[in-house]
Write a structure and sequence with these properties.
10 strands; globular; 18% strand; 13 helices; D-Maltodextrin-Binding Protein, domain 2; 2 domains; alpha/beta
């Protein structure tokens, strides 16, 4: 009888332990704007009050340097990685940084946003277009194409982010360099028209908002965040050759908080997580959530096609080519 009671007690303890609420920590490395990271942190911790979500926030270049340094030392300290350029994840895969993970939330996400080998899943959509200072430039006069930026009337009034510091800008540069419509000649002309560089995405947008420049090569969600704060910013979704970027998340192989990393991964892809992103002016990758007042189908039609394999393989060459034009 005592043996039976002991066996029952052990079973009860085992079930109780299995049903215990998740607890501990989870670490996210991301190049996303900090306001959006804070919003995700609040939502995640509300769902899992016994887990503390920490994050390291910096431009893509710095995040990748940190990941590379830690990987060489033996272990990346993050549990989840979330940077802007999807081609970077091909490098992460090749270097053995990521762990395969199939999220139950991925069933609501189109296959084109999911790595066929299961190492990453698109978690947000961003678009690179042309932003402008709405106190200085009217919507009618604002550039409507990349070639419009070559008009002499914008000479010395254009700014963009250094692609070495921002994955989204590197993606943009790679797309235009690979296109026979643009190529190196486009960037030479852009530089000749007085386009200047800023060292980070936030700085680029803030410079346009502060009237230091009239126009810029900018991101939709960062521009819309500034608009919501009252800054004099406008943004144009180009009707042709728009740069549309899906930004993935990946689970770090052998991380310290692997199970909590999976919970964060799932939360970001969930309806609740994606609604937080939409509330913060990002586009969702899910098929079953309502977007803000943006025509996603029109964006898809006007977006350029980018070869991620080529971008990943030629990343250093792309940056070198750009530097030879802009940093001589």
């Amino acid at each position: 009888m005592k043996r039976i009671l002991l066996a029952v007690m052990f079973m009860v303890l085992a079930v109780s332990s299995a049903m215990a609420a998740p607890s501990g920590k989870v670490m996210l490395y991301s190049s996303m704007q900090e306001d959006q990271l804070v919003a995700i942190k609040k939502g995640f911790e509300a769902k899992y009050p016994d887990i503390v979500m920490d994050y390291y926030f910096a431009g893509t270049g710095r995040v990748i340097t940190k990941i590379a340094t830690e990987h060489q030392a033996g272990q990346v300290a993050a549990d989840v990685i979330w940077v802007g350029d999807p081609s970077d994840y091909l490098s992460f895969k090749k270097e053995g940084i990521l762990e395969k993970y199939s999220s139950p939330e991925a069933s609501a996400i189109a296959a084109k946003f999911i790595d066929p080998d299961g190492f990453y899943t698109g978690a947000r959509m961003m678009n690179m277009g042309i932003g402008y200072n709405s106190a200085l430039v009217t919507p009618e006069d604002a550039p409507k194409s990349w070639n419009d930026l070559l008009d002499p009337k914008w000479e010395g009034q254009i700014v963009m982010t250094d692609p070495a510091s921002a994955g989204t800008t590197k993606y943009f540069v790679a797309a235009l360099l690979a296109s026979p419509k643009y190529g190196e000649e486009y960037f030479k002309k852009l530089r000749a028209n007085g386009c200047e560089l800023e060292s980070g995405t936030t700085a680029t947008h803030n410079q346009v908002a502060a009237s230091a420049y009239q126009v810029g090569i900018m991101l939709d969600y960062v521009s819309h965040n500034l608009m919501a704060q009252g800054s004099p910013i406008g943004f144009t979704y180009l009707p042709e050759d728009l740069i549309s970027i899906f930004s993935p998340i990946g689970l770090v192989k052998g991380s310290a908080n692997n199970e909590n990393g999976k919970l964060l991964y799932d939360f970001i892809l969930s309806k609740d997580g994606q609604k937080i992103l939409i509330a913060n002016n990002l586009l969702s990758v899910r098929d079953d959530v309502e977007q803000k007042d943006v025509d996603v189908e029109a964006i898809a039609k006007s977006a350029m096609t980018v070869d991620l394999e080529s971008l990943a393989a030629n990343s250093d060459k792309i940056l070198s080519t750009f530097d030879n034009i802009f940093k001589k």
